[in-house]
Amino acid sequence: MNFKNKKYIDFVKSLPCCHSGQYGVDPHHIIKVGMGTMGGKAPDICAMPLIRAVHDAVHDDPDSWPQIRWMIETQKKAIEAGILK
Question: How many domains does the chain have?
Fold first, then answer.
């Protein structure tokens, strides 16, 4: 499986934050939901756009944030834009 997808990550960077709606995001790879790879990060297609403050907050308390919903919403946007097929 190819865990890297530059086209998808570039697309994620172009989107507004899933939480705040602000631009200037970091791609956040989903954490603490069984999507990682033996101590590594999740595949790029499991990334979502978050501004730095929200990104840090998610890492501080991952169970308090709707990461799965955000991931699916981001993937849906990528499918609609033709980034994912």
Answer: 1
How far apart CA 59 and CA 12 sit, in angstroms, is 18
What would the pLDDT profile of 22-62 be if each residue is shown by its tens digit?
999 999 999 986 655 555 679 999 999 999 999 999 999 99
Give pTM, 2 decimals.
Answer: 0.89
Q: Tell me the one-letter amino acid at 39.
A: G
Q: Is residue 64 part of a domain?
A: yes
* Residue 5: both structure tokens together: 């997808």
- Per the structure, the complete domain to which residue 76 belongs is given by 6-80
Residue 11 lies in a domain: yes
